[in-house]
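Example record used in the benchmark description.
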Amino acid sequence: MRIALGADLLDFPRCGMRIALEGFLKGARDLDLTSRFNLVHGAPFADGRLTGFTDAVVPRPGGPASGLRWSQLKVPRALAQLDADLLHWPYQILPPVNTPVPQVISVWDLSPMLFNEPTWSRLQVFVKYRQVLRRALNNAAHVIAHSRAIAEDLVSHFGLPADKLTVVYPSVADIFEREIERSHVAKPEGPLLYVGTDSTRKNLDLLFRAFSLLVRQGVRNQLALRIDSRKRASLEVRAERAGIPVDRLMWLEPVDADGLMRMYREASVFAFPSLYEGFGMPLLEALTVGLPVAALNRSAMTEVVGEAGVLVDDNAPEAFAAGLLEALRAGRENGADTAFRAKQQAAKFKWTKSVQETISVYEKVLGREA
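Model output (structure tokens):
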């Protein structure tokens, strides 16, 4: 069984889905499956980091709509020349609509469709989701959703039959998977930590209003934000309007994986007010460290956190403040037990398991054993 794997994310700066793709490839290497994958992307790998995988380069065209022309025209033509039985497109942006071999598409989230995000124009959403993705999903042999919540969204918004969907959970970067085995108890005096962006669905104003209530109640911890520094000025204004004194905020710059790990290890609680996540990688990162977490009881957060954190039903500042306070108390009063339960939950998510379950999807599509 030979798989062509859409890997153009590896040609661009690191983002959450690229980190996930790198984790998937490491899982495949750990299972000695590298020889089965042709990595379809736009530029040759120069550093030997993916030795063992076949480097299937499909040069990217220049000019307008280059991504659309690459995925819809050049990749299908290249597949006809590749020794591949199946194409796996591992994220939902611009999967080829028609391919000469069966296609499996992975879907992480539908946030551009469901939320009016400033980084997505309505034209982009219409073309990439309501046109290309809809047709590609209908033509796909099978679809992988990275949470039950996303599987339900695909049924609801695209009318996909349930038997065409399989839920396969991802994991986190290798440094965080290894952290599960290490002992750590959250620091009660550390800051409440948020890691993420300031998009509409991330719901940061809820966190600001809830934290302001904690300040008024006498909580002395700071609020640490690991977020795009270009947003700092506008976020400071919003935090001040919510009633947060400027000295109670910490601004953390983007760092590598080691630095991000240190941020989690210095925190008292991980605060995640997001309204919608396809999976919620930062939540799982926090759990691997043993950090108490507080999140809204929405979409995939329920699946990631399970019984290992505080899930808040009400999207209101008073309710989220109570959830944050409960998480703080759990870390202070039952730190070792809280960390154990968090790490136990995090251990359910492994890249090797994800790869094995994905291989099972391939086998189902092709109707044969590996």
